[in-house]
Design brief:
By secondary structure, the chain is mostly beta strands. The protein has a single domain, classed as Thrombin, subunit H (Beta Barrel), CATH 2.40.10. Helices cover 0% and strands 63% of the residues. Strands 1, 2, 3, 4, 5, 6, 7, 8 and 9 form a nine-stranded antiparallel sheet that branches. Strand 8 and strand 9 form a beta hairpin. It is globular and about 45 Å long. The relative contact order is 0.28. The mean pLDDT is 84.
Length: 101
């Protein structure tokens, strides 16, 4: 059985340049949204920000937890619409960035 882990690399490309998100905590995709959660504040991310995302996942073999492959996805023309923040005493602050496709 193969297991896909949290993305290992997220590259954001926009008219303002290209940068990588290094503290990704989770990733989710629905029919009309891409949601990423990370511990870092990204100053470029304001409502209405338009970008492309390149996301890379490691694929593991469950028997011995060795990396067997990488899977890459590309999302074009995403628009950032919402940035909810979550802070708990027991955990690291989490910023969710919700993009519409």
């Amino acid at each position: 059985m193969k297991i896909i882990d949290t993305p290992t690399k997220v590259v954001v490309e926009s008219s303002q340049g290209q940068f990588e998100i290094g503290t990704l905590q989770s990733f989710d995709e629905t029919e009309d949204r891409v949601i990423i959660a990370c511990a870092e504040y990204i100053p470029q991310f304001n409502r209405g920000f338009v970008c492309d995302l390149d996301i890379e996942f490691k694929i593991y073999e469950s028997a011995d937890s060795t990396v067997t492959d990488y899977k890459k996805y590309h999302y074009s023309d995403l628009v950032l619409v919402y940035i909810p923040k979550k802070a708990d005493m027991e955990s690291v602050t989490q910023l969710k960035y919700i993009f519409y496709k």
